[in-house]
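Give me structure tokens for this 157-residue protein.
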Amino acid sequence: MSIYNIIIKDKNENDITLEDYKGKVLLIVNTATGCGFTPQYKGLQYLYDKYKNQGLEILDFPCNQFAGQAPGSNVEIDNFCSLNYHTTFPRFSKIKVNGKEASPLFTFLKSQKKGTLGAAIKWNFTKFLVDREGNVVKRFAPNEKPEDFEQEVAALL
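Here you go.
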């Protein structure tokens, strides 16, 4: 199975694949607007601004599974992130990352790189780094800030 063939929903609930991102370095993140890690949006936007022209894409998947920290509709979440953190990277429809209803994308990512809880996502702002060939090369814990692993991102570009 290729990461590029997995069906996901864009922020307007349309079925799409990640085929458009083939050949790019991806940082895929499950996010929340009311989390203690929400300020990481600043670091994510910093990386995006600095490296998007070199082939980095940050893919934002809001997730309300952890203490209800991503309430609201896709539009409300998108507006919050744009207004408060000036994010310009792609945001997708709200998903689940654990359990029977977990997004096929996150099921795939978790199967490729385990965390401290095994495959399960521990909390919001778990980040997966994917190389240009679609290989999941690293998983970063929620407390790992984007600026702390900038060198690892840059090395793949």
